[in-house]
Write a structure and sequence with these properties.
Keywords: DNA-binding. This protein is mainly alpha-helical. It starts with 6 loop residues before the first helix and ends with a helix. The protein folds into two domains: about 45 residues, Arc Repressor Mutant, subunit A (Orthogonal Bundle), CATH 1.10.10; about 140 residues. It is about 75% helix and about 0% strand.
Length: about 200
């Protein structure tokens, strides 16, 4: 394997991922894509593909780190105290990632075909948030695990409901409804500051 920092390696990996994303979004059947088809679409040969990935599944797996680390970096830019003062900020950061990011990310996180990737991303986000609750808010491990799962599950629900289009609501309306439910639950756990903007959501 060539040095991952080699410009040619970076260009080739970009070409492979761009081709994969285009093919998945074109037919919404990523599991039907073969290495030969992908290589032809990316303008490379099969041997070059295998220098970077073991299989199509291995390529799909690489998106777990891409999505999770990007989201974790965005969420980690704020402290837990900032979130406790305004939980809408947490949802805004999460929502912004999916509304401003590539269509492909939203698709793989909401598609049944890629549910295995979505579960792994959700697990990484939950583990990150659980650790933050323990270190910054001094929650016990058990409580932090429950709270982290509750928050991340609600965030993912917002993305899935919007993508499915089954509620008759736009993303802002879905976000507002889930925000009320989320803040209400967090208030019950003592995680909403009394004087924060989120307080009114928990009581309305």
């Amino acid at each position: 394997m060539k040095n991952a920092n080699d410009r040619r390696v970076i260009r080739t990996q970009h070409a492979i991922k761009q081709a994969f994303e285009e093919m998945v979004l074109a037919d919404h059947d990523g599991h039907g894509i073969t290495v030969s088809q992908l290589a032809a679409h990316a303008g490379i040969n099969r041997k070059t593909f295998y220098l970077h990935y073991d299989s199509i599944v291995d390529l799909a797996d690489s998106y777990v780190d891409d999505i999770a680390q990007d989201l974790i970096a965005r969420l980690g830019a704020h402290t837990m105290e900032e979130y406790q003062n305004n939980w809408e900020l947490f949802m805004h950061v999460f929502d912004e990632f999916f509304t401003s990011n590539r269509e492909f990310y939203t698709y793989v996180m909401t598609s049944g075909e890629y549910s295995f990737l979505a579960r792994r991303v959700q697990l990484e986000l939950t583990q990150f948030l659980q650790a933050e609750l323990v270190s910054q808010v001094h929650q016990e491990d058990g409580a932090a695990t429950i709270i982290a799962n509750f928050i991340v599950t609600n965030m993912m629900m917002m993305v899935r409901l919007h993508a499915a289009g089954t509620t008759g609501m736009d993303v802002t309306q879905i976000r507002d409804q889930l925000m009320k439910l989320t803040v209400g639950g967090l208030a019950g756990m003592g995680l909403v500051k009394d004087d924060s903007p989120s307080t009114s959501l928990a009581t309305n």
